[in-house]
Amino acid sequence: MIVYNEDKTEILENYDLETGHIIEEKEIIHHPKTYPVEAKGYYKTIMEYPNGGKDVEWVEEVPGQEGHEAYDEEVIYHIYKPYTQKEIEEKRNLENIELYKRLLSETDYKVLKYIEGYIPENEYIYIRVEREYYRNKIREAEGKYNNNIDPEHLKEIQLQQALGKYDDENLESLFNEDETN
Length: 181
Prior knowledge:
This protein is an alpha+beta fold. It contains 5 helices and 6 strands. The chain is 43% helix and 25% strand.
């Protein structure tokens, strides 16, 4: 596959798919009808022999051409387009969302163990804080996180949640209250 720069002025040998992507661009090229042209030239004498024979070669001055009907040709260009800073941030955001969702799901079995009584309350507090941290990171990356919350206030909420003062429902309502203020 031949890859061009954005202006289609040069072929790129090296390009980084972490910092850009390849798009396909189609272009229609119209070829007009052409008529056949007979080749024009002359015979050039290369060597003459004493018996009157000659070696000659054809020298073509105007090349011949076959005629064809008019037609359109579709040309596909592969163009490397670097990501904008916004696209890089969005891509990083999506990767973070996937990471934190995976980390959150990896702790699901601990919740079940706690519910079934295999993990004591004093150990589960740390698991809850960890899971809430992942949820907050997901909310933040999805834009559902209220950026107006003071980080110190958030730490206090997380500490109080770990101590059992806030459960997830109370915490969610607390975030929603801050968004409306």
